[in-house]
Amino acid sequence: MKGKLARSSTDRMVSGVCGGLAAYLGIEAVWVRLFFVLTVMANGFGLLVYLILWIIMPEAGREDATTSQTIESNIEEVAGKPKSLPRAWAAPCAEARIARPASSSARR
């Protein structure tokens, strides 16, 4: 364990919680991500923990902010994230789409 617990600004998939926890614990981020995925799939509790950590953990470089400032800015980020997620996922989803026939009348 080294430094303060903070969300990673470089090793992030959604908000940097897993990357920050991994850096704090000195392990690979993939293991923390796997833990959260398994707990979400097992009982859903991991999602609640992830959201709470997202709200209370300061972002890297902002560890000196007060707790209320951190929570306020993180809540704004959580509220704005659903708008940006579809754009980030649009390219991978577009590649995964299955091509449909041009029209259903071609079968007749």
Properties at a glance:
mainly alpha, 108 residues, 0% strand, single chain, 4 helices, globular
Description:
The protein is built from four helices and no strands. Residues 91-96 have low confidence and may be disordered. It has 108 residues and is mainly α. It has one domain (17-97). The protein has helices at residues 17-25, 29-42, 45-56, 67-96. Helix 2 (29-42) packs across helix 3.
What's this entry about, in short?
This protein has 108 residues and is mainly alpha-helical.
What's the SSE blueprint?
Blueprint (H helix, E strand, L loop, with lengths): L16 H9 L3 H14 L2 H12 L10 H30 L12
Helix pairs in contact: 1-2, 2-3, 3-4
Radius of gyration: 19 Å
Distance between the termini: 67 Å
Count of DSSP strands: 0
Count of discrete structural domains: 1
In round numbers, the mean pLDDT is 75
